[in-house]
Amino acid sequence: MASLLKKLFGIAPRVSREAAMETFNKRYASFKDLLQANADLAGVMAGLDATLRGDRHMETSEVRKQARRAIVNCERMASTLSEMSGQCDLSLGNAVHSIASRIEHELDQLARGDVPQYTLPLSEVDASMAYSVGGKNANLGELRNMLSMPVPRGFAITIRAGSFFLLRTPGLFKSLFSLLKCIDPEKPALIADISQQVENLVLAAPIPAEVERALSAEWDAAFGKDADVVVALRSSAIAEDGVQSFAGQYRSILGVTRQDMLPAFKKVVASLFSPRALAYRAEHGYDLDATGMGLCCVEMVRAKAAGVAFSRHPVDLRSNATVINGLWGLGEMVVDGSGTPDQWLVSRATKKITMATIAHKTVRLRLVRAKSGIVDNRLEPVPDALRDVPCLSDDQVRKLAEMVMELERHYQYPQDMEWAVDEDDQIVLLQTRPMGLDNASEEHSAPALRHLRPLISGGDVAARGVGCGPVVHVGESEDMTHFPEGAVMLLAHSSPNAMAAMRRASAIIAETGSLTGHMASICREFGVPTIMNLPGATSILVDGQVVTVDALSGRVFDGEVQELLTLRLVRPQAKASSPALVLLRRIAPYILPLHLVDPPRRNFYPPPLHLAARHHALCARAELHADVPDI
């Protein structure tokens, strides 16, 4: 009778103390596992969110790894909640599985360009493969294969080859990491010292045999038995040639022969750890121990002339013109700012040349093969008859304008295109990348200041703004590790080497330089007011003299000019669009949003699960980072 009454009134039979403790311990263990999974998931979400905001850098492989960690921790939470509810309902686990499938689909979608090879012919490369072959290779392959534009013969050395060399050479990366972890971004002298030690380690390390065989085989496939072929071996890193350009931070080696290829490979890879590259990565939050270095190996064009074309004006954003700069010989003097180039503005609407400024060109860079067989690029005088002659014909100028505008339409973003004209007067494209636009507000213009006479005026504004401080003249190849904070940097010509101290300068003045060069791009990216092409600046301005640099109208004044200093501009920071961020933006909607965070809200309710699981499902759904209506 007693047992019948207990069943009738729902009274559970008495269990032993041991059985009760065993049940409690199981539930307690599940609860602890739930809390730990929740904490681990919160850490993953915080890291992904910081990367999305630009406060942290992740490579593509790390984004994939963290996304899968999020899935695993969600599955742990669903499993433990199910155990705690006595396996009464499986809806939560099914929902997690559904969301995980969508995330995996996105990860697989962007994985198609991953390649196991150490090298690839350019015929097999396109823009979707930037995270496998680097930005420079990806863009060259896109020009060749998708747009049928003229590019040199060559091949891509993949990210895998560079990483395999750094990570699989016994003891190499361990030694590199132990040095790099000691770097303090606020101590430039320490960066330079560690950089030299790291470079020595890389240059002394043997290249793995499988990488060496792949490089030699691809050279022969690309260039055959042509003993006279010489190439440019250029960096093609993962983050390079994105919105954060890395312009001029890594090494390029010109005039490389088959015999020189392997030592040159190590030198370019070692430039991952040059002082200016480490300073640049530290400034933008990239890992200092990055190993994502691919290389671009392309036949050198025996250039009559070369230079850069911008699809839009890099500083005057209201201008409706393309900008084309060029010099006789190789184009390195344009991109490194050591030469003053010819410049043309071409109307984007009418395709007419609206302005031509022809420079007096005294020297050019040429590729020379010595009797010993060694190939080198040397400075030589420009023949007198060519010194004041345009390096391009009007037809070539218009053709380059058309090409760079076509690239802008294709990429849907203003482009910075390097070009050369060969000995047969044919245009060859050497690379393209997103332009480094000056994103400073153009609301302010400099006052006339007729009561003041500038020390020097008429310069080209490379990055808008106003700066004031004592002049510090920096000589050719001078160590910049002790450049004083707030000083005005004075250069004979622009150089990407200024990167080591650029952030500490209040402004930069260069006697010669190019608006389309690497240093100008970095100045705009970092927001450092910069004026170029001020002849005589190094003799007029004296070390220690306080000046105000008006990089709004291209003038330099003695002392502090308060009317100008009130116009100091604040630049919004451009967000990078690296392959890792592209991937993260696609999966973030499935991972980061927390919808059920406010219980009083009307939409805070679970679907009709079994009553025993109702409370646990509510708790889980407050943490489950997914689109709740799909649960």
What do these coordinates show?
This protein has 631 residues and is α+β, with helices and mostly antiparallel strands. It has 20 helices and 21 strands. Strands 14-21-20-16-17-18-19-15 form an 8-stranded mixed β-sheet. The protein has a 6-stranded antiparallel β-sheet with strand order 9-8-7-6-12-13. Strands 1-2-5-3-4 form a 5-stranded antiparallel β-sheet. Helix 3 packs parallel to helix 19 and helix 9 (188-204) runs antiparallel to helix 11. 46% of the residues are buried.
Provide the low-confidence segments as ranges: 240-247, 571-576, 606-631
How much of the sequence lies in strands comes to 15-25%
Overall average residue pLDDT:
80
Could you give the distance between the termini?
Answer: 46 Å
Principal-axis shape? globular
Strand order of the largest sheet: 14-21-20-16-17-18-19-15
* SS summary, helix count: 20
* Rg, Å, rounded: 30 Å
From the helix content, strand content and strand pairing, which structural class follows?
alpha+beta
> Tally of extended strands?
21
Helical residues, percent: 25-40%
**Major sheet characteristics:** 8 strands, mixed
